[in-house]
Amino acid sequence: MDAKTHQKLVELYKSVELLPTDQEVEDKKNGKRKRKVPLQHGHSQLDWVKKHNAIQSNTLYQGHGKIPLSEFKKHNTVQDAWTVYKGAVYNITEYFTYHPGGDTELARAAGHDCTKIFEFTHSWVNFESMMAKNLIGYLIPDDMI
């Protein structure tokens, strides 16, 4: 990848980046943990792993997995949620009822790059493994289609 393309991708990811709030940073410094919300029966993390393992395979966006920014930004609701983690785009829609922090917290990631907030909040969790079969492609600028 040439330097110009690399810089373009860096700027693209920054344009959709989700960062921890000042309050979240302060709470973490003070050792305060976010509270978990009650989940529906059958929607624990173990249940997610079982469901995820049962999925045959992921489906790449339009067969090639290159997702333009304009398309990515359309998927920003609880009913249709995509997020970016380390440049890869994941469909997180099915995960809302499994998220221990609740759907309101997870909804913040819809239509955004969640890399920094995820690593800030869940540094011990392997996102790529947990969402591997929900990978649908890689975010690219609209003019790189």
Automatic annotation (TrEMBL):
Pfam families in UniProt: Cyt-b5
Region (Disordered) location: 23-42
Alphabetical list of InterPro entries matching this protein: Cyt_B5-like_heme/steroid-bd, Cyt_B5-like_heme/steroid_sf, Cytochrome_b5/Flavoprotein_Rdt
Highest taxon above the source species: Eukaryota
Keyword Chloroplast attached: no
Listed GO CC annotations: cytoplasm
Alphabetical keyword list: Heme, Iron, Metal-binding
Domain named Cytochrome b5 heme-binding: residues: 64-140
MF term (GO), any: heme binding
Name under which the protein is recorded: Cytochrome b5 heme-binding domain-containing protein
